[in-house]
Task: structure prediction
Amino acid sequence: MRLALFVAIVVLSSTLGEILITMGMKQAGEPERFRPRPVLRFLGRALCNARFWAALPLLALSFYAMLALLSWAPVSFVVPATALSYAVGALGGRFLLGERVDAVRWMGVVLVCVGVALAWAG
Amino acid sequence: MSSAAHVRKKTLILATLMVSCNTVAQLVLRKGMLQIGSVHLHEHDLAGAFWKTVTSGTIWMGIAGLLAAFAVYMTLLSWADYSYVQPATSLGYALVALLGVTVLGEHVTLVRWFGVALICSGVALVGRTEPRTTKRSV
Result:
């Protein structure tokens, strides 16, 4: 029960946080070139984005819930268990970010979810 | 190289870099938490555990690895779909299970290995779709 609760906290807070980050990074715009200066300019723009900062408390919550999980269970169990965030992430990508999640991408997500269930059972 | 091929190539390179940084960081964090010991859900113990994590060099090394992976993740998300990049991160699961066994001496059952294989197959399917399906913002 305690493990399930903390897995839910990690999944929901990390996915919501990352959706906010994605919105912020799309606003910041990609680096013009992969040289140190343009990449640093991009990271500077990213750090000035309000959605980036709004995401941080959610990611911090996810991080500490993850640390607690890692103290109770092996990493080869904890990490696959938190992969439930793929299903939530695909839904968020489709409905909050307007991404085109086609049948192949959904099939990939379903495979990941079955894999997660097996990783729990194992 | 066409624009679509260029986007796919740079997405693949950065995704590989991100997965590598993240996997090593996860293992370093697990090492750190093994040094600290099991966390109990009592106010006093939680505060003590929090203090141990912020004063542990191993935990800070893990955090540095996660920050590097996060910077690469942010860069990826500036052009690629979240629903494309996020599944790509699970390539690290196979790596984590493998390193968990070889480096940390953990036991991974056959069923769990099968689950990890399915996760990787799912990621491979997602990898066949277009990395960017939304309009460029800038």
